C-alpha cells in the first residue's frame, strides 16, 4: 500500500533547538507495509546486509510488572500499558534488492507506537539509568559528528536491546547535495556504526526528513534497506502532530532527539523523555520496538 503525505520537515531552530515546520515541504510518496517492486539491484553491502537483534535488554512483548511501578514513580511517571507480543508475520518486509521503501508508520491494529531518537549530541548518563529503570524500547538513528566524541555512551543503550541505525556523517539536507555526497554521508556512517557497534544498520533516517530519488539510490547502495520518517515529533513538553486530529494512531513512529538543556531551554533530556512518555500514557498506548515489526531481507532474496 502506498500513501502520500505532506508533513512538517524537521529543522533546527536557532531559538533553543526546537523543531519547527520547514516551509515549502515537498510531498513525498511513502511506501508502507512491504518491500518495493523488484527490478534493479543494489551494489555493495546492501545485497547481504541483515540487522541482527542485539542481545540483552527486555524483549518487546514483555509486560510491565507491578514491581516496575516503583521505578516509574522514581521518574514521576505512571507505567505504560504492557507491550503486546509482536506479530509473527511482520507487517513490513524488506528486500535485499530493488527500490528502497519509505515509511512513516507501521501498519498494525495493536495499540502501540514506536520511539526513535536521533543525532546523539546529548550524552546524559541519567538517561541511561532512566532506560535501565523503565525498559522502554527505542531506536537510535545516530549521526557521526554528534557521537564521535564518545561512541561508548550508546553501547549500554544498545546492550538493553535498542538498535542503532544510520543518520549520516554530517547531517546535511540530503536533497540539496549530489548523489556522490549522499553516498559519502550514508556509506561513511554505515561503516563507522558497523565498526563501533558490531551490527550494520538496517534503516536510514534522512536529516530534516529531506530526501530525493538520489537518496534512495545512496541508501540502497550503502546497506540500509528502508528510509524511516515519522508522524509525531517530540518538542519539550508536548508532541507536534502531522494528523489534523492531533492524536496518536496505532503504529505511529515518534521522532525525538538526544538533546539537553542547551537546546531544550534548560530542560534535561530525561525530563523531555518523561514528558513524551506522559503524552503516550495519556492516550493509552504501549511502546514497542520498531525492529520487531520489520522483516529484514534474507540472503535468499
TrEMBL record:
Its EC number is 3.-.-.-. It holds the Pfam family Polysacc_deac_1. CDD domains: CE4_NodB_like_6s_7s. Residues 111-301 form the NodB homology domain. One of its GO terms (molecular function) is hydrolase activity. Residues 37-65 are annotated as: Disordered. Keywords: Hydrolase. PANTHER family: GLYCOSYL TRANSFERASE-RELATED, SECRETED PROTEIN. This is Polysaccharide deacetylase family protein. It comes from Streptomyces gibsoniae. The lineage of its organism: Bacteria, Bacillati, Actinomycetota, Actinomycetes, Kitasatosporales.
Amino acid at each position: 500500500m502506498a500513501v502520500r503525505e505532506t508533513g512538517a520537515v524537521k529543522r533546527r531552530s536557532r531559538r533553543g533547538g526546537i523543531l519547527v515546520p520547514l516551509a515549502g515541504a515537498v510531498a513525498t510518496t511513502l511506501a508502507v507495509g512491504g518491500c518495493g517492486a523488484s527490478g534493479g539491484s543494489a551494489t555493495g553491502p546492501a545485497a547481504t546486509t541483515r540487522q541482527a537483534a542485539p542481545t540483552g535488554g527486555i524483549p518487546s512483548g514483555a509486560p510491565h510488572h507491578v514491581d516496575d511501578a516503583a521505578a516509574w514513580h522514581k521518574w514521576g511517571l505512571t507505567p505504560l500499558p504492557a507491550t503486546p507480543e509482536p506479530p509473527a508475520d511482520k507487517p513490513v518486509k524488506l528486500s535485499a534488492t530493488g527500490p528502497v521503501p519509505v515509511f512513516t508508520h507501521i501498519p498494525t491494529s495493536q495499540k502501540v507506537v514506536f520511539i526513535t531518537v536521533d543525532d546523539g549530541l546529548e550524552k546524559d548518563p541519567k538517561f541511561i539509568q532512566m532506560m535501565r529503570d523503565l525498559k522502554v524500547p527505542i531506536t537510535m538513528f545516530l549521526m557521526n559528528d554528534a557521537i564521535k566524541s564518545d561512541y561508548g555512551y550508546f553501547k549500554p543503550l544498545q546492550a538493553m536491546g535498542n538498535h542503532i541505525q544510520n543518520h549520516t556523517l554530517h547531517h546535511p539536507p540530503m536533497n540539496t547535495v549530489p548523489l556522490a555526497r549522499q553516498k559519502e554521508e550514508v556509506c561513511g556512517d554505515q561503516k563507522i556504526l558497523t565498526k563501533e557497534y558490531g551490527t550494520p544498520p538496517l534503516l536510514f533516517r534522512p536529516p530534516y526528513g529531506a530526501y530525493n530519488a538520489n537518496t534512495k539510490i545512496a541508501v540502497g547502495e550503502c546497506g540500509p534497506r528502508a528510509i524511516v520518517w515519522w508522524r509525531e515529533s517530540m518538542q519539550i513538553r508536548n508532541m507536534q502532530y502531522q494528523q489534523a486530529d492531533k492524536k496518536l494512531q496505532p503504529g505511529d513512529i515518534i521522532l525525538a532527539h538526544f538533546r539537553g538543556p542547551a537546546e531544550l531551554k534548560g530542560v534535561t533530556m530525561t525530563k523531555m523523555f518523561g514528558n513524551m512518555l506522559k503524552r503516550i500514557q495519556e492516550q493509552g498506548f504501549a511502546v514497542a520496538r520498531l525492529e520487531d515489526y520489520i522483516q529484514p531481507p534474507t540472503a535468499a532474496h
